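Retro notes, item 3 of 5
We never archived the inputs for the zinc ion complex last cycle. Fixing that now. Sequence and ligand:
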Amino acid sequence: MFIAHLPAGYLATRALRPRLPRDQWGRLLAVALICSVLPDADLLWFYLVDHRQTEHHAYVTHWPLFWVALALAAVLLPWGRRRAAAQTLIGTGLICLLLHMAMDSFAATIFWLRPFSDLHLNVVEVPARFDWWVWNFIFHWTFAVEFAICITACVVAWQTRGTRNATQA
Ligand SMILES: [Zn+2]
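Structure as it came back at the time:
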């Protein structure tokens, strides 16, 4: 996926909102949005260090079990009285991280069980029809799905904005 990670993370977090503490909403949304795009920070390594030698979806930053293990380790830290708030933040972040990998599984190869297995998932193969690889994704039908996710997120954000303004009036 290209452009839909951030709006999908927003929509997922909005869907979770009734179950989330109201006083943490701003912090939770910030963590969710960061986590929804965080795995793609490996593009810096891909371009600047690895010089495009390894497909970036194969990096540890795109291994779902890496993030699950990291989240479990974070939960086990001595949070004291902030334990509940920390668990909510970690859980919300993990959901958005896993959503990122689930979305990437549609048009890229994601190794869901690494480092234990090379079992991978790639639902749709995007054919290489253009010289510049970006066009291959933009002119593929999966991009229409991404666009729809973006539009949906904009509509939900707009409706939510209207609701918030109405309740403040
Ligand atoms: Zn990704």
